[in-house]
Each structure stands twice: as structure tokens, then as C-alpha cells.
Write a structure and sequence with these properties.
Elements: H1 8-14, E1 20-24, H2 30-40, E2 46-50, E3 71-78, H3 85-103, E4 109-112, E5 116-119, E6 122-134, E7 137-147, H4 172-186, H5 196-202, E8 209-214, E9 217-226, E10 232-235, E11 241-244, E12 251-254
Parallel strand pairs: 1-2
Antiparallel strand pairs: 2-3, 3-7, 4-5, 5-6, 6-7, 8-9, 8-12, 9-10, 10-11
Helix pairs in contact: 1-4, 3-4, 3-5
The protein binds biotin (BTN).
The site of biotin (BTN) has 20 residues, from helix 2, strand 3, strand 6 and strand 7.
């Protein structure tokens, strides 16, 4: 693998607004680091980027496979309170997929509600938003993980995960800067839901039969819309509509 190394100043030169950037060759998890970092450095907007993670995680603490050099492992700290996690996660997904489409225009990249990035029905990335409230105030830690050109996945991931490219000399700095630019340009207004028309167009979950699992309960129906809060509207076989919020979902299966 000859990917161009992550370089802080290259990213700094390509982003539209100045934010603090920290880079690491290897870290346990950029989200874990972010949560520790903000305790001593409150009220700062910071992007944390690693070349590899040894304990990357996703929703419900599921492992996020994060091998050296072939992915994007990014966390953004913002001093703010998330009032609508559904809108934040969908906006961050849209920002990420838009940046990826710019860099890989040939690829069939889509969003799976609520937090997955897909290529040809397999997962290429995910979003994890965490709200941290302590005596220093409220901070958002937003994690974005993407398999850019990971070649070998562990056996258990081979049927569900894939990478975006087989090109082995991707400049991840450009892609990361594009993600940050997309995210920060949408952040000031995301709570209005202004991005939702774009989200719906790229959302592969809509008009499909889906099975929503929440702990021990399950609901199957047709995904008919994403509402103004970023929630999924599911219509069951009796034509009853259910509003599914992000916090109420353990797993979404496209049938
Ligand atoms: C998911 O698919 O459930 C979300 C995956 C989020 C993974 C990213 S990688 C960067 C950041 N650090 C982590 O440990 N997790 C997020």
C-alpha cells in the first residue's frame, strides 16, 4: 500500500475555515481520544485524525475495523449541544458521502439510514455522534470512519463490508479536507433540515422493505420517508405509519 501519508499541514491548507487539527499514526480510537482531550481543552473545535486505530468503535460499541493507512478515521469535537441527533447524524452522513462522490465520481455511493455509508449495498463507512456533557459544558464528538482502499477484511466482515477504491495511492488528505469542508458548511443550518431533500435522494433505505431491530423488538415495513427530524417513517402491512428515531434502533436490515 503506497497511500500518501496523512499530513496535517496539507489538510490545514485545504480547509475553508481554520480549525485545530491533530494527527496520529496510531491511536486506540479518535473518539475515545477526543472525549479525553476535551476535558483539558474545552470550548475548542478540533479535528482528530489517525492513520490506524487499535480500538475503533461504532454504535453500540461494535468494533470498527481500522487498519493502517487504508481508511479515514476522523473525529470532530465541537463545543455545542446536540438537540436533534437524528438531523446531525443524517447531515454528517450526507456531508461524508458528498465528499466521497466528489473524489470517487464513478462509484455507486449511497446512504443507509441512519448512520451507514454504502457502496453497492455493502458498508464502506459509518457515523457515530456522541454528546458529552460535563462541568466544562456540552461538546459533540462526531466520529467518521471510512474504508477507502482496505484490501483484506477479517472473515466476519467480508460479506458486509467493502472499500471504495482499489487504487493504492489515494491522497486521504484531500478527501478528509473535503469531508471537513462539507460538514462545516452544513453545520450552521443543519437544525433546519435544509439538507434533507439531498439526503432523501441518496438514501438507499427509502422505498425498500426494512426490518428495524430495537433490542428484543422488531418491526418490518416499507421505508416511505425521512421526516423533518431525520427520523425514518415506516409503513407496516396494515398501512400504519411508525416514526423511528435514531435512538430507538439497534440495527436496520434492508430486505
Ligand atoms: C458505525 O458504523 O456504527 C460508526 C463507525 C464510526 C467509526 C469512526 S472511526 C473514527 C471514530 N473513532 C472511533 O472509534 N469511531 C469513529
Amino acid at each position: 500500500m503506497t497511500n500518501i501519508p496523512i499530513n496535517r499541514s496539507t489538510i490545514e491548507n485545504k480547509i475553508d475555515q481554520p480549525i485545530k487539527i491533530l494527527t496520529f499514526k496510531k491511536i486506540n480510537s479518535t473518539n475515545t481520544f477526543a472525549k479525553e482531550y476535551l476535558l483539558d481543552h474545552p470550548n475548542q473545535t478540533v479535528a482528530i485524525i489517525a492513520d490506524a486505530q487499535t480500538a475503533g468503535y461504532g454504535r453500540f460499541k461494535r468494533d470498527f475495523y481500522s487498519p493502517q493507512q487504508t481508511g479515514i478515521y476522523l473525529s470532530i469535537i465541537i463545543p455545542t449541544t446536540i438537540t436533534n441527533p437524528g438531523l446531525l447524524t443524517t447531515m454528517a452522513g450526507l456531508a461524508s458521502i458528498t465528499a466521497l462522490k466528489k473524489n470517487f465520481p464513478e462509484e455507486n455511493l449511497k446512504l443507509k439510514w441512519i448512520n451507514d455509508l454504502l457502496l453497492n449495498n455493502k458498508k464502506v463507512g459509518g457515523i457515530l455522534a456522541e454528546n458529552i456533557n460535563n462541568s466544562n459544558g456540552n461538546h459533540l464528538v462526531l466520529g467518521i470512519g471510512i474504508n477507502l482502499n482496505t484490501a483484506d477484511f477479517p472473515k466476519e466482515l467480508q460479506t458486509i463490508a467493502t472499500s471504495i477504491s482499489s487504487n493504492d495511492s489515494i491522497d486521504r488528505n484531500i478527501v478528509i479536507a473535503d469531508i471537513l469542508n462539507q460538514f462545516f458548511s452544513r453545520f450552521p443550518t443543519y437544525q433546519t433540515g435544509d439538507f434533507l431533500p439531498e439526503y432523501r435522494k441518496l438514501c438507499d433505505t427509502l422505498n425498500k422493505t426494512v426490518r428495524i431491530v430495537n433490542g428484543n423488538t422488531e418491526l418490518t415495513g416499507t421505508a416511505v420517508d425521512i421526516n423533518s427530524n431525520g427520523a425514518l417513517i415506516l409503513e407496516d402491512t396494515k398501512k400504519l405509519r411508525h416514526i423511528i428515531n435514531s435512538g430507538e434502533v439497534t440495527k436496520v436490515f434492508l430486505k
